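Example 9 (inverse folding). The structure is encoded as follows.
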C-alpha cells in the first residue's frame, strides 16, 4: 500500500532535491504549484496525487502522472509543459485518430526471408472515460471496470476470440509461467507504486488471450487497458490489422475511451498519450549495433533501439527491440509507417555492413 502525502510536503522534497532532473522539477514552478495545489477534479483527484511518485522517486525521468482524465485540463498549467517537453512538440494539436485503411496498407512482411526479425508487436493503451486513474480509484471501481472490460472482450469474434484470466486467484505457477513468457505484468515498479498504481493488488487486474495467443489485453496494469497484437516473424501488416480490428470491435461493443482535443487518447503517464501506439520488432542486427553511430542512425529515423527486455536493458545475442519514437502529433497510421520505414532502413544497413 502507498500512503498519500500532502502537496506542500511533496513540493518541499522536490525543491530541496539538488540532483533531480525530472520534467516535473523543471516545469512545476512555485507559482504554478500555488495556483494548482488546492484544485480538485470531478473524480476527486489532486495535484498531490499527480506528483507524489516524482517527489519520492527523485530520479524519475518524467515525474508526473495524471490522477484521472480530467487532470489533463485541471492541471494543464504544468502537464501541458511536461507533455510538450517530453514529446518534443511546440504546440498541442494532435490530429484526430486515423488507423488508415487496413485493406490498402501497402506493407506486409518486412523480412520475408525470416533471417532477421524474430517477432513483431504493436500495442496501444486506452482509458475508460468514466473512471479515474489509479490514484482516485476505489476497490469497487476496479472491480466494476474489470467487469465492463471483460463484458466487452467477450464480444470479440474470429481470431480475436479468447478467454480472460483474472490475477486474483491465479496460481503462483501460472503467474510465473505467464510472466516468464512476457505475457503478464507484475507489481514491482517503484515509480508506479508511489503513483498508487498497485493499490488493492491484484483485485481488478487480469489478462485476456485470444485462442492463438496473438492478441492480448492487459487489464488495470498501468493503464486501464493495454491492447497488444503480436506474432513471430516480421509480418507487420498482419499484426497491425489484427490490432485495428480488435479496437474497432471493442468500440462497437460500447466501450468509450478517454480522449481530449489536441492530446489524443489519454493515459495515466503523459509520456504515452496521443496515439499511445508503440510498434516494435525484435531484430538481429549485430553489425549495425556495433557501429559508433548506431544511436544517431536510429534518431534520424525517429526510431528507438533498446534491449529486448525493455528500457535500460542490454541486447542479447545482437537482438534489439526497435520501435517508433513518436506518439504525439501524428496519426496512428503515420506512426506505424514511421516504424516500418525505420525497420526497413535498419535491415538495408545491416545487410550492407554484412556484405550482402
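The amino acid assigned to each position is listed next.
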Amino acid at each position: 500500500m502507498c500512503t498519500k502525502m500532502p502537496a506542500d510536503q511533496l513540493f518541499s522534497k522536490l525543491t530541496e532535491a539538488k540532483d533531480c532532473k525530472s520534467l516535473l522539477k523543471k516545469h512545476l514552478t512555485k507559482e504554478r504549484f500555488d495556483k494548482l495545489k488546492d484544485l480538485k477534479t470531478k473524480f476527486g483527484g489532486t495535484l498531490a496525487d499527480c506528483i507524489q511518485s516524482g517527489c519520492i522517486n527523485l530520479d524519475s525521468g518524467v515525474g508526473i502522472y495524471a490522477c484521472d482524465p480530467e487532470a489533463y485540463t485541471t492541471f494543464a498549467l504544468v502537464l501541458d509543459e511536461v507533455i510538450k517537453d517530453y514529446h518534443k512538440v511546440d504546440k498541442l494539436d494532435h490530429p484526430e485518430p486515423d488507423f488508415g485503411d487496413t485493406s490498402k496498407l501497402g506493407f506486409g512482411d518486412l523480412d520475408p526471408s525470416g533471417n532477421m526479425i524474430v517477432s513483431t508487436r504493436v500495442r496501444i493503451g486506452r482509458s475508460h472515460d468514466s473512471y479515474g486513474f489509479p490514484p482516485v480509484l476505489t476497490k469497487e471501481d476496479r472491480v466494476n471496470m474489470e467487469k465492463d472490460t471483460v463484458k466487452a472482450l467477450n464480444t470479440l469474434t474470429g481470431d480475436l476470440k479468447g478467454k480472460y484470466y483474472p490475477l486474483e486467484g491465479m496460481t503462483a505457477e501460472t503467474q510465473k509461467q505467464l510472466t516468464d513468457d512476457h505475457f503478464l505484468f507484475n507489481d514491482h515498479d517503484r515509480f508506479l507504486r508511489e503513483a498508487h498504481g498497485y493499490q488493492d493488488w491484484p483485485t481488478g487486474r487480469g489478462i485476456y488471450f485470444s485462442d492463438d495467443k496473438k492478441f492480448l489485453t492487459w487489464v488495470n496494469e498501468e493503464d486501464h487497458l493495454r491492447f497488444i497484437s503480436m506474432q513471430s516473424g516480421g509480418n507487420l501488416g498482419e499484426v497491425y490489422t489484427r490490432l485495428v480490428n480488435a479496437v474497432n470491435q471493442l468500440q462497437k461493443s460500447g466501450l468509450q475511451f478517454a480522449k481530449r482535443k489536441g492530446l489524443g487518447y489519454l493515459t495515466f503517464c503523459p509520456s504515452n498519450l496521443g496515439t499511445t501506439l508503440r510498434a516494435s520488432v525484435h531484430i538481429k542486427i549485430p553489425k549495425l549495433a556495433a557501429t559508433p553511430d548506431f544511436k544517431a542512425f536510429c534518431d534520424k529515423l525517429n526510431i528507438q533501439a533498446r534491449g529486448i527486455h525493455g528500457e535500460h536493458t542490454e541486447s542479447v545475442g545482437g537482438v534489439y527491440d526497435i520501435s517508433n519514437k513518436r506518439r504525439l502529433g501524428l496519426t496512428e497510421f503515420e506512426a506505424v509507417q514511421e516504424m516500418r520505414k525505420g525497420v526497413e532502413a535498419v535491415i538495408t544497413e545491416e545487410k550492407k555492413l554484412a556484405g550482402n
